[in-house]
Amino acid sequence: MVHVIAQPDFRDMTCMSGEFRAFIGDLIKKRTWIGASLSCPEKKSPLRGVTVGIPIEYWVDELADRVRDAWREAAVRLASLGADIVQVSLPSTRHALPAYYIIAPAEASTNLARYDGIRYGHRTEPEHQGESVGEEFMTTRKEGFGEEVQRRILLGTHSLTTG
Predict the structure, then answer these.
(1) The organism sits in which domain of life (predicted)?
(2) Quick one: how far is CA 66 from the chain centroid?
């Protein structure tokens, strides 16, 4: 997965630099990231020194039994590989979804603002020579972005412009 993510996307001008991409490539070749040692049979405790925290806030009554069992099995497996399993508290977890619904649209609004059809992105040619720049922007964005993206841009712009 890291190898796929590390590939450049020539359609994205915000893509990571070649230098950083090479650094990630070296990690892939050396297999030095955490978890690579899981496939190394010569080590009895490949996760020795790794601490895995299980948040108590995630153990809610509504959690499906199969999900709870999967967590337990994963904890047992990680412990058998040498990891220390500890209980942790993430009291701000309850704010994660509301924060996401503010931050994600604001990010969409600011990141997609450059795709105005003038500098970057899809551009609709005006049907009439007298069409204003504002109308051209509006038509371009309507054609270039789907309804959900437009909704997120609008919500993000609203959240950025209000207190």
Answers:
(1) Eukaryota
(2) 26
